[in-house]
Structure prediction request, 330 residues.
Amino acid sequence: MTHELKDAYRHCEQLASASASSFFWSFRLLPREQRQAMCALYAFSRHTDDLADGDLADGDLATDDLADGDLATDVRRAHLDAWRCELRDALNGNCHSPLWRALHDTTVRFAIPHEYLVAIVDGVAMDLSPPCYDTFDDLNDYCYHVASAVGLACIHIFGFEDDRAEKLAETCGVAFQLTNILRDLCEDAAQGRVYLPRKELADFDCHPNDFRQGEMNAQVRELMHFQIARAERLYDEAASLATLLHPRGRRAFVLMFSTYRTLLAEIKRRDGDVFTRRVRLGSRGKLKAVMAALQFRAPSPAHTDDESKVHSRTRKSRDSRRVAVRQSGN
Prediction:
C-alpha cells in the first residue's frame, strides 16, 4: 500500500471517528484492513447524506433565496448529481481526493458491486422530496436504497460465501431503517415528513397531524404496536446472517445488529411512545447492546436445495483480487 493510499484511509478513519457514530466502535472489532474499508464506506455514506441534509456552502444561494425551499432543493440535487459523476469516475480509477482513493481501493479489495454505492446516492436523492409511500412495498424500496444497499456493501467487507447472505442483508437493512423511522417519527413529522405507509395510517385511523401534535392516542399506539411487531419479525429473519459471515467480520455485525435491536426494544418498552422524549440508548442501553452482542446466538438458516448454492466470490477469488491490487502498486 502506497503512502498516498495510507493517508487516504487515515483521512476516512478520522472522518468516521469525528462523527461519534455508534457504528465506529463496531469497526474497531475488525482487523485493520476491514476496519479501514468500513471507514472508507462510512465516510462516503456520511458525506453523501450531508449533501442532502447539511448546510449549503457560501455562494450556493443568494441571501434573498435562502427562504426558497424549492431552490435550495434544486441546489442539493445538483450537488448530488455532481457527486454521482465523481463516484463514477472514482470507481473507474479516476480519484481526485483521499476519500475517493480509499473508496476505490475498498471496492477492488473486497469486490463490492458498484451498484450498491450508486443506490446509496439515489437513496439520499429520494429524501430531497417529501416522503409519500402508499404501501409497505413502496417504503421497502426506499429502505433498500438508504439502508440495505449499505448493508450489502458491508457484508462484502465482512466476508461471506453463501448467496443467502445477500437477501438477509437486505432484510436487516429494512429492519434497521424501520427502527430509525419509528424512533424519529415525532421529529420527522414536525418537518412534514411521515415515512409510514399511507394505507397503514388509514387502516389504523391515524393522520400525520397526530404525530406532529405528539398525540399518543389509542390509534397511534395500535399503529406503533403493529410496526414494532413487523420490525421484530424482520430482525428475527435477519439474525441468521451472522452465521453466514466470516468470523473476522461477524463480531462487528453482531454489535451493529444488537445496537439497533436494543433501540427497538427500548421503543417497545415505552409502549411505542416516541413523543414524550427522544429514544436514546444512553450508557445503560449501550451496555445492554454490548451484552446482547456477547450473548448473541444466531439461528442457523434453513437449508434447501435451491438455497445451498455457494457464492462465486470464494476466498480464493478474493485473495487473487487482493494480490492483483498489491501488484498494481496500490
Observations:
- The chain is about 70% helix and 0% strand.
- The domain at 130-319 is CATH 1.10.600.10 (Farnesyl Diphosphate Synthase).
